[in-house]
């Protein structure tokens, strides 16, 4: 999305009487892409000038740096995104006009502080989406969702970019005619760390490409980038929505990739096994019946059984399936459920797991202790009531979740089974919040308050801004909240989250125009 901003004269007509009867020298339109947040800066992209604008707050001032990318009038910046570690910004430049020939699409990686020369990759197509690997090593560019593009393009073309600077691989996915919808890295469960999938004793960095009724798997560490394409049932309407990888262990030795369908009563199970000389792999396919439907899933190993746990959102139940035999049982929850996650609990001095199920619009959270679940027929879940219903749920840590419910904000503490309501002027927006240690930082767009909540004492503090919030950002480098206000020249307020007060905050205006008005 682009934000059209009309740049007008910065001075009142009384000071520019001679110019008020004619267009200002500075009249004109420039479009800025929405800002992205890095560790140190807010970053805007000025597509018309092929410039990336870094705004870095420090103390009571801000520094603005403009970095040129692309080829001037021949290119335009299509989109920008921060890397997962927030240490870099990615920006894709494409030809400014379809009439421009011999102009390459390029991905540029710039350091978060705006210093140094950008790293540039030739990616060969005007990709519309990017998937970033949790281990921070790669970006996969593709035509996402509907694969829309003004020109004829290969909907299954991708670019695998090594963010360490080693280069880019341009690849076309093999398959059965399905169009690529999304890209996932199911084996990578630890942020910032390489977690390979071990198949037959060999490590693989697996990426899953989800298309219509099929999944394509690829080892991104394989120089040949061999692909394994798996059809999952176009005839039964199986539409892959997301994946879940279970590593192999003593209960089930081979890793298994579960695939959730957007509809239907089955989950795909792809058992990953070595092939040929052992360096490659393939997948053995089975479809697991999981009740009337499945809206979410996790895996859980009891002492003797490797379970797949799914949420039957139509029956309001958890379904336990032994992935070896496909036998199992269900536990009715007694209320609506669509989403599921696991948390650690202390079960008589032994570390155990607890399942937490909930549904958008539901009025309860259901918890079910999983210790000895295979021998506990008839076990009933417990419930925590949310009086005004669940709009949003964010897992803060192992013991706490945050629930937005209209103008209520609930902090739920599972060990104490405590639900604490906080009142707000506006509905909670996860995009307008950040968690820093035990501080919850809040700043919802469209209102004038920035708030912090001490999650240990549940004591909130708020400060009133002079202007309405456009966007909320938290920069971990300087440990500052930065809220933007709608203004074409650039207008923001920098707040100290440890001491949110007007006396310690700083307001800055005009930084987006630095270096613009003196350009020819």
What would your notes on this structure say?
The structure is a single chain. The protein has no helices and 43 strands. The protein is mainly beta and 520 residues long. The protein has a domain at 429-520: Thrombin, subunit H, CATH 2.40.10. The strands form eleven sheets. The protein has a five-stranded antiparallel sheet with strand order 1-2-3-4-5, with no helix packed on it. A four-stranded antiparallel sheet has the order 6-7-8-9, with no helix packed on it. The chain has a four-stranded antiparallel sheet with strand order 10-11-12-13, with no helix packed on it. It is globular and about 70 Å long. The two termini are 27 Å apart. The model is unreliable at 1-29 (pLDDT under 50). This is Lipoprotein. Residues 1-17 form the signal peptide. It comes from Nannocystis pusilla. Keywords: Signal.
């Amino acid at each position: 999305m682009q934000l059209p901003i009309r740049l007008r004269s910065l001075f009142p007509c009384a000071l520019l009487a001679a110019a008020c009867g004619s267009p200002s020298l500075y009249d004109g339109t420039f479009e800025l892409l929405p800002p992205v947040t890095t560790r140190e800066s807010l970053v805007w992209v000025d597509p018309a000038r092929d410039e990336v604008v870094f705004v870095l707050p420090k103390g009571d001032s801000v520094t603005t740096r403009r970095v040129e990318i692309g080829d001037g009038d021949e290119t335009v910046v299509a989109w920008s995104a921060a890397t997962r570690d927030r240490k870099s910004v990615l920006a894709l430049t494409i030809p400014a006009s379809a009439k421009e020939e011999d102009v390459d699409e390029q991905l540029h990686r710039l350091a978060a502080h705006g210093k140094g020369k950008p790293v540039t990759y030739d990616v060969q197509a005007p990709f519309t989406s990017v998937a970033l690997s949790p281990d921070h090593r790669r970006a996969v560019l593709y035509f996402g969702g509907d694969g829309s593009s003004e020109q004829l393009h290969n909907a299954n073309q991708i670019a695998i970019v090594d963010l360490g600077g080693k280069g880019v691989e341009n690849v076309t996915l093999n398959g059965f005619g399905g169009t690529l919808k999304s890209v996932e890295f199911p084996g990578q469960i630890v942020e910032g760390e390489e977690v390979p999938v071990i198949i037959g004793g060999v490590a693989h960095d697996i990426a899953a490409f989800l298309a219509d009724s099929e999944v394509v798997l690829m080892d991104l560490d394989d120089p040949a980038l061999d692909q394994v394409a798996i059809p999952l049932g176009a005839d039964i309407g199986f539409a892959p929505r997301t994946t879940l990888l279970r590593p192999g262990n003593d209960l089930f030795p081979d890793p298994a990739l579960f695939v959730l369908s957007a509809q239907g009563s089955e989950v795909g199970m792809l058992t990953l096994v070595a092939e040929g000389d052992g360096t490659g792999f393939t997948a053995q396919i089975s479809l697991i019946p999981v009740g009337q439907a499945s809206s979410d899933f996790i895996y859980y190993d009891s002492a003797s059984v490797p379970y797949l746990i799914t949420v039957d959102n139509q029956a309001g139940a958890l379904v336990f399936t032994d992935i070896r035999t496909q036998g199992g049982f269900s536990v009715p929850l007694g209320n609506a459920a669509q989403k599921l996650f696991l948390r650690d609990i202390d079960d008589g001095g032994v570390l155990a797991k607890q399942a937490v199920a909930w549904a958008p619009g539901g009025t309860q959270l259901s918890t079910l202790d999983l210790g000895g679940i295979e021998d506990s027929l008839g076990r009933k879940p417990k419930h925590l009531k949310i009086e005004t219903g669940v709009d949003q749920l964010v897992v803060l840590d192992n013991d706490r979740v945050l629930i937005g419910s209209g103008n209520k904000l609930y902090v739920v503490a599972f060990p104490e089974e405590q639900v604490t309501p906080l009142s707000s002027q506006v509905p909670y927006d996860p995009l307008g919040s950040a968690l820093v240690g035990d501080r919850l930082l809040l700043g919802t767009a469209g209102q004038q308050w920035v708030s912090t909540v001490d999650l240990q004492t549940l004591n909130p503090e708020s400060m009133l801004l002079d202007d309405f919030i456009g966007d909320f950002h938290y920069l971990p480098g300087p440990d500052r909240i930065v809220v933007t206000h709608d203004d074409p020249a650039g207008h923001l307020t920098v707040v100290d989250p440890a001491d949110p007060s007007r006396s310690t905050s700083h307001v800055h205006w005009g930084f987006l125009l630095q270096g613009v008005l003196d350009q020819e």
